Amino acid sequence: MPSALSGLMELAEAPVQGPSPSFDRARFLLAFLAIGASGSIGRGALAKSAGLGEGAVRTVLKRLRESGYARVDASGCHLTASGTAAYRTLRHALSDPLRLDGSHLTIGNAQTALAVRGAGSLVKKGLEQRDSAVMAGAEGATTYVVKGGKFTIPGGSSDCESDFPSPAWTTLRDRLKPRDDDAIVLCGASDETKAILGALSAALTLI
Question: What phi-psi label fits residue 149: left (phi over 0), alpha (psi between -120 and 50 degrees) or beta?
C-alpha cells in the first residue's frame, strides 16, 4: 500500500470520542479525491459528491486540515502541497472512475469501472472485491485481470472479450488504457455514488 494511502486510511479510521463518524474508508477517500480533482470545492458540493452528511463532511475536513492535507477558506476546500503529493500518488495507483451504465459485464443499473494499476497478481477469484463492494452498498462487482493484453477472470475466462461480447470492452480499453497486470473492478449499484463507493471499496482490497 502506498504510504500516501496508508496515511489517509489512518485518518479515516482514527478513533473518536462519542458517536462513530458516519463514513467509512471509501467515503473518506472519495471525498479526498473529489477535492483533488476539483482544485477547489465547496462543502455542499463535497457532501454531494461523496454522499456525506453535513456533520461527516465537517469531520472529514477537520481530519484533513489537522493532518496538513487540506485547507479551507472562503473560496472552498483545497489540498495543500502535502495533500497534492498524496493525491498524485493515488492517481498513479488508481484510474479515474469510469461510468459504464447498463453493460452485461456485471450487475446493477449504475456501473462504475476502476483500474488498479499493477494489482492483477493480488486478485484471487474476485470474491474479496465483490464482498467489499456489497458491504459499501453496491449490488455486486466483477474483477477482471489484464493478461497478455486480454481481459481475464481468475479461475474463469482467459479471454472475456471473446466469451462475453460487448461494446463495453472497447470503452474500457479506450478510457482506462489498461496494461498487463492491471486489475479492473466493475461495480454495479442502484445509483452512481454507490457504484463509485463500491468500486473504491473493492480497490482498497488490492492496494
Answer: left
